[in-house]
Structures are given as C-alpha cells and as structure tokens.
Amino acid sequence: MSARFNTILIPVDFTLNTQVAIAKTLGLLEDADAAIHLLHVARPSWILRTLRQVAKTRDYEFQARIEQRLEELVLRIQKVKPGIRVITWTDNTQSVEKAITAKASFLSADLLVIGKHSSNWLLPFGRKVIPARIATATGVPVLTVKPGSLKNPVRTVVIPVGPKFPKKKLELLHAWRDTPDCTIRLVSCLSHDKDDAYSKDSLLNTFRLLKTSWPGSVEYDVLRGNNHARALLNYCKKVNADMLIVYPGEETNAGVFPARYISDLLPVDSRTQILAIQPV
C-alpha cells in the first residue's frame, strides 16, 4: 500500500465534523491528480422524517438542498486547492456506517477521514459510525479527527508494537516522512499478569529499523495495563501525541460496556488523531 493518499473519502454531515475532516484532508494531499470524495448519507431517522412531514418538505426539495450544500463544499475546497478533483455522492438506501463501508470499498479508497465532535458517551449504543469496524471490513485506513487537532501539525506519532512486526503501520507512517521534526514513539503494551517476550523483541527490532531509516527522532517505551486502549490514550496524553496508529481490536476497544471505540474517550479539544488500519 502506498503512503500517498490519492483517493480520500470524507463522510459529510455539514457540521463541525465536516469542517475538521476537510481541513485535515487538505493537509494530506500531495499529488495533483488526487481526488476527494464527499459522501452524504441522506437516509433520515424517524425523527427527521416526522419533522419533514410537519414542515411539508417534499423529498425532491430535500435532495435539492443536500446537493446545493455539497456543491458549496466543493467550491470551498477548490478555493483552497485550485484544480483538485472533488466528487460528491449521496446515499439514501442504507445506514450511515454501511453506506460509508460500501463507498470506501467501491472507490478502493486510500484513506477515509471521519470528523467526530461528539463522543455520544451517554448513548454509546446509538453511535452511527464505528471507525474500527469500517477499517476491519474494508482494509481502508480510517483517520478519526476531533476539533482539537485542527491547528496542530503532526509532530509526535505513537505506534503500538505487538508480537508481530507492524508492517502496515510503518507503511502509513511514511505519509509524514517529510514532516519536519516528526518524532516516532514506539510502545509495547504488556499486561500486568504476563511478560510478553515476543512483543519486546518486536519493539526493539522495529526501533532499530526506524533508528537507521527515519529522518526524525525515534524513542520507545513499555506500557503496563490490562486495557491496552486506555493505556495508549493515557500515554498519548502524557507525550502530547498528534497521531496514534492502531490496529482494530485490542488497541481500539476501550472495554466499556457497550464496547466503545478509542476516540470516544478523547475530549473534543484533544489534539490526538486516531489512524486505524487492518493488519492483513
């Protein structure tokens, strides 16, 4: 997989989420032939359907408004990046997460960028989109960003290292290779009740490789804790991490019932972006 992101999909809901996702996407574009795909899932909830009936808004009028707002986003993006290709899509046939998953697979996207302003911590079972689930289903890297990351460039990247060599994570890492003074922090998360020698060996081997090939600083640490996702979040807060690259599963499941994605525990003003990629 190339570290260059030429086909980027952004789900849009016309809120602050959309603004943050677009801003971060524009900062990642390098090639002139790159394309941004904007997807709005227009399938309304029963509440919105009721409100539309009360307001007597016809379906074609609603669709026209959506298309107009999408075109406004296209013009705004092209004002910042003249000549960039921006394609818009709408889907009113399935749920938000299913629509995003289907479109990411259809486009063979290089990256999916999701803005998340709210964590919905009061009703976690009602979350419409779980990034780790999309990354697992599609194999497409999913970048989750919050408003706090908007003005922060990527300077510190945290990469968890397990028993196996983190090949996919390092491939993604090269997208930030030319970023000045970008520090890599490798970490192994070990449970309190066991000593994983394989993870330690993998950590040291990865450190040695990056130490000789990465242009910036490379450091490593060993974390302790039975909940790896929470241990990683605490570490990111401690080192002011701008990016955390994770595999879906143990590194993204915070272990709260119902199970919550790691970014749901980040405050709105967090600078840490979460990049999830399926290892295989």
TrEMBL record:
<feature type="domain" description="UspA">
    <location>
        <begin position="5"/>
        <end position="146"/>
    </location>
</feature>
<dbReference type="InterPro" id="IPR006016">
    <property type="entry name" value="UspA"/>
</dbReference>
<protein>
    <submittedName>
        <fullName>Universal stress protein</fullName>
    </submittedName>
</protein>
<dbReference type="Pfam" id="PF00582">
    <property type="entry name" value="Usp"/>
</dbReference>
